[in-house]
Design brief:
The protein is an all-alpha fold. Among the domains are: 6-68, no CATH class; 137-208, no CATH class. Helix content is 81%, strand content 0%. It has seven helices and no strands.
Length: 208
């Protein structure tokens, strides 16, 4: 396989298509070998096409970078708002447990700060509902023999509402996870007891 000339390699490295890069590279090589070489109209057109591709590639790269930076800022802002809303929910949960007016005031301050930053009341309530819907859902089916599946469902649900992973949030999530698991185990035990009683009653009827 024939190796590319240094000039052709440079043009290709800048995103010029192979055909144009080969032609533009050959012209650049001629100029390097003979400083008095005069470009023909065709040479000039080839060079212009190569540099046009380079400029276009640079423009697209700049636009792509700008878009990625904008998306990153949006993700960070989304995470920040979710973190604040989750903090609001956490503070209210603690306030309910401790009957602390101070925690209620702290939660209210978090909400007011978000509203002051432009988050609407409707959006705030929607985010709170989304978090509550995950934290207090009763739809988690727990199979004692498959703990990993239950935990995977829990992680998927909490990630879907953008819950960040700092220590305080994790503690509340872990506590709720254990609570859900214990509740499901109790329901399973109650159901097993009901089945046992039904079987006992049915057996007693048969004996009669």
């Amino acid at each position: 396989m024939e190796s590319l000339s240094p000039y052709e390699q440079q043009f290709q490295a800048l995103g010029v298509d192979p055909s144009t890069a080969a032609q533009a590279g050959a012209i650049a090589q001629k100029q390097a070998n003979d400083p008095s070489y005069t470009l023909s109209n065709e040479d000039q057109n080839i060079r212009n096409a190569a540099f046009q591709q380079i400029l276009q590639n640079q423009l697209e790269a700049a636009m792509q970078q700008q878009q990625e930076e904008q998306e990153q800022r949006q993700r960070e802002e989304e995470e920040r708002i979710n973190a604040a809303v989750f903090e609001y929910v956490r503070l209210l949960e603690q306030a309910q447990e401790t009957e602390s007016i101070g925690l209620i005031d702290a939660a209210a301050a978090v909400k007011q700060q978000l509203l002051a930053e432009g988050v609407s009341e409707a959006e705030f309530n929607q985010r709170v509902s989304a978090i509550d819907g995950v934290l207090w859902s009763e739809s988690y089916d727990y199979d004692e023999s498959d703990d990993s599946a239950f935990e995977a469902r829990w992680q998927k649900e909490t990630q879907s509402i953008g819950v960040p992973g700092n220590l305080q949030h994790s503690e509340l999530l872990d506590d709720r996870f254990r609570e859900l698991r214990e509740q499901q185990l109790e329901r399973n035990e109650d159901e097993q007891e009901r089945r046992r009683l039904r079987h006992h009653v049915q057996q007693a009827d048969l004996d009669l």
